What we know:
The complex is a heterodimer. By secondary structure, chain A is mainly alpha-helical.
Amino acid sequence: MNKQEEFNTTSESEKVYNILNLGPTHPATHGIFQNILKMDGEIIVEADPTIGYIHRAFEKLAEHRPYNQITPITDRLNYCSSPINNMGWHMTVEKLIGCEVPKRAQYMRVIIMELSRIADHVICTTIIGQDTGATTGFLYFFQMREKVYEIFEEICGARLTTNIGRIGGMERDFSPVAWEKLNKFMKEFPEFLSEFQKLIERNRIFMDRTIDCGPISAERALEYGFTGPNLRAAGVDYDVRVAMPYSSYEDFDFKIPVGQNGDTYDRFMVRIQEMWESISIIRQAIDKMPEGPIHADVPEFFLPDKEEVYSKMEALIYHFKIVMGETAIPKGEVYHSVEGGNGELGFYLVSDGGRTPYRLHFRRPCFIYYQAYPEMITNGLLSDAILTMSSLNVIAGELDA
Amino acid sequence: MQLQERLETLLKNKFADAFISSETSYDFPVFVLDKSVLYDALSYLKSDSETGFAFLTTLCGLHYPDNKDQEFGMMYQLHKLETNERIRLKFFMSKEDMKVPTITTLWPTANWMERQEYDFFGFKFVGHPDLRRILNMDEMNYFPMRKEYPLEDGSRDDKSDKMFGR
């Protein structure tokens, strides 16, 4: 008896369930996710997620690449906020080689990381709006992501997979156009954000739809290893930026927004509030931006200027060493984590002194919290499952590495 | 540093013979213990009132093919959110005996993490509820993160770089 016949047969004694394949490609799942759902009418009885559709063997690949060539790999983890991944990797290596990055570069990094956090949260919040039927947010507010990408384009030349920054600092200073675009963004964005917030936040339909949709308690969230906005929505104020400050985050004054119920509405609200905090951090960083060099004095890692390569012996040697991957790396093992768009993004790096990492393990927040998804959607409606997934902001690239 | 000393005393008292070494690697206290106490040590660190490292940050497998009888290792990172202390534990084992007790009973989040390490290294997590491959396809017959497996299919020769290859 095949599945269809089984479904058509009505049995008095035995309850008949319907098997539904949600995904791997489905317009409502925003990525390559497959969930095999056992349905009782419209209620989900059991869910079995299958992941790995875009697995690209990053951990193995990283064992065969020099350190500076690993940055483009990290781009492709959470591709909605690649600069945070890039910076996290640079800081991991800087920790390993014991390199102190100048203040100006640190502040520039903070600006870039907060901009990408905004881009990440813009995607998540507008998609929650889209999935509840509030298409306006997706069409109107989503353009702010484009503005962020324009700033990235001006800073580093790339938009999505940025490869921004270098080990030891930043590759170049912000150009006048980048400053201009940044200042324009800082003027425009709060207006757009408050407009979007006003449109959605107290909307009766939106609230009815999202409150108590896919909730998770704080205890359960901690057991499942939640971090980032999804954990904070459940009411735990853990933020890597505050707990283990990196890149001068201790210089800035900002709040950690927390929710109460850990449902879709709280996850939405936490992200909205975090965007306001990001704006405040960027503003403080612009105001306090120190003068000085934009990279540390680590010639073995930081590619010298082209002018120097053509005119100075040492610069040429270092250029050659970096490009050919012949840099000497100290032995050791180091873990560094940054607050990514979705939570604690960690890099566990073991170096045996070779030109490539001996072992590189990514702590990918999406991978860790996505396993709570079946529990969160069981005994709920199918349409709530879609909404729960978008509010968790599961990014396929980070999930599958 | 105080954290390392404090925990070293506690772990030595609790698991006298199984305690192998401890060090501070960058900002992390690292403890190496014998595999026989893996579950007990993690459960002690999680639940005891003196320790209370209740958050599992991450775990991952390690492979050192040259270390005789210590080829494979498991690394666990725990976090105590209240005091913001983090520690790392390592357990080494030989390639003949890759059985590791599962910690899914302590942390449900270990479920997929352990599946991932099984998928890539072939650790046998004893007692794991659902030990299947997770990122690779089910038909795969080897464990790709082990050092002996090349990055690319070893049988192809169209990519060999005879001039600059290393």
